[in-house]
Specification:
The protein is an alpha+beta fold. Among the domains are: 33-119, no CATH class; 256-334, no CATH class. It is 27% helix and 32% strand. It is built from ten helices and 20 strands. The chain has helices spanning 2-16, 130-142, 148-164, 193-201, 230-234, 263-273, 306-313, 344-352, 357-364, 373-380, and strands spanning 20-25, 33-47, 51-54, 61-66, 69-74, 77-82, 84-101, 107-110, 112-118, 121-129, 176-177, 205-208, 219-220, 256-262, 296-299, 302-305, 320-324, 328-334, 342-343, 369-372. Helix 2 (130-142) packs across helix 4. The termini are close together. Residues 1-16 have low confidence and may be disordered.
Length: 381
């Protein structure tokens, strides 16, 4: 009990104060120069943790890397050569940033930016309040034409994921990256006021399992009518990631698909991945169907995992039937993605039908609780 109480008090400031997380941005690019301007609010500059200078709201800051240092210019004036530069907000503020080499479109970032150079490449970190980050991710992951209730669903999923993966990029000196390795994030939300409203209305809400641990908030585009158990895809069983039926997604864009593969390609695949198949020509004549999800393609004593076939042949899902044609093999599939957790297109239709965010989340994630972060350690005790 003493250890639990100690852990509670150590973590209490994290959950009762505004939470700031560090996001590595442009992590998939080798940046050598950027432009930064103030979009709104008020900032000061901090050079090498010691030199402080209030930002010129009309200035354009040109920053480029030289070895392990950065050079900063403002309106053609050289400000100096530094190891680190920070744009620190005085009030809630937004910066605009555009990469010069390589060239990218402009992005806007809430709160603070930190820049340094590593082996001639600029590293950029957005020190952003959690709820601003959540809104930015929901914009990228959910799109712009959905209901307030669906945005609430995605906000809780995003927030839970972020807080359960804060050490994913610890070696790189930030919490999460800005691409799909973590969650897609391109800066602050600008396209839909409902996204900001959904984030505010669900502020600090996360999902936990029966042990009060943050859950793995897996989701995918379309389940094709039935989601998967987690162990059938990833080999690890999560009691809240159970297979459920879903009729809401059946008429949506990613509900069905077809892919044709040359018969010779399928024969070679069977030979390479199923040695006993080499002398069994009947395998090339056998159709296969799934009225409900299966985990493997079974021929006599041979089992081929469907998830492997999906990955190897680049199919949209592992929920498919096989139809043998004269010269080809037809994969007739349902759904898009790994199939574990929340089905986005199903959840979108649930929200449009008037179902509330908590019902939708409990439908896809079994035996979980939606709680406020301030309650998290209380429930653990």
């Amino acid at each position: 009990m003493l250890n639990k109480l100690l852990a509670f008090f150590l973590l209490l400031p994290l959950y009762t104060c505004a939470i700031t997380i560090n996001i590595g941005v442009y992590t998939n690019l080798q940046i050598t120069s950027i432009l930064v301007t103030q979009q709104s609010g008020n900032y000061y500059l901090l050079f090498d943790n010691s030199i402080k200078r209030e930002i010129d709201i009309e200035a354009v800051y040109f920053i480029f890397s030289v070895d392990d240092s950065i050079i900063v210019k403002s309106n053609q004036q050289l400000l100096g050569k530094f190891k680190r530069i920070e744009f620190k907000e005085i009030v809630p503020s937004v910066l605009k940033m555009r990469c010069i080499l390589p060239s990218t479109s402009s992005k806007q970032f809430d709160n603070n930016l930190v820049l340094f150079s590593e082996k001639g490449s600029l590293k950029v970190r957005n020190e952003v309040e959690l709820e601003n980050y959540v809104a930015g991710v929901v914009e990228m992951e959910a799109g712009s034409n959905h209901t307030l209730e669906y945005y609430k669903v995605q906000a809780i999923i995003c927030r839970t994921y972020a807080l359960s993966n804060l050490r994913r990029h610890e070696v790189e000196q930030y919490n999460l990256c800005d691409n799909v390795h973590c969650q897609a994030y391109k800066g602050n939300n600008r396209i839909n006021e409902q996204i900001a409203e959904a984030t505010i209305q669900t502020k600090n809400l996360v999902m936990v399992d029966k042990k009060s641990e943050l859950i793995t908030t897996a989701f995918h585009s379309n389940c094709g009518g039935q989601t998967c158990n987690s162990e059938d895809v990833w080999g690890m069983s999560k009691p809240y990631l159970r297979s459920v039926r879903d009729t809401f997604c059946l008429r949506q864009r990613n509900a069905t698909w077809v892919k044709s593969v040359p018969k010779a390609t399928w024969a070679e695949y069977l030979y390479q991945n199923c040695k006993p198949c080499a002398n069994d020509t009947s395998l090339l004549c056998c159709d296969f169907d799934q009225t409900e999800r299966k985990t493997s393609l079974n021929y006599s004593s041979v089992q081929l995992p469907l998830k492997n076939i999906r990955n190897d042949l680049k199919l949209k899902s592992s929920f498919f039937a096989i139809q043998i044609q004269q010269d080809s093999v037809l994969f007739v599939g349902k759904g898009y993605g790994h199939g574990v957790g929340l089905c986005q297109e199903g959840a979108i239709q649930m929200a449009r039908a008037g179902l509330k965010y908590n019902y939708i989340l409990h439908y896809y994630y079994k035996d979980v609780d939606i709680i406020n972060l301030n309650q998290l350690n209380f429930f653990k005790d």
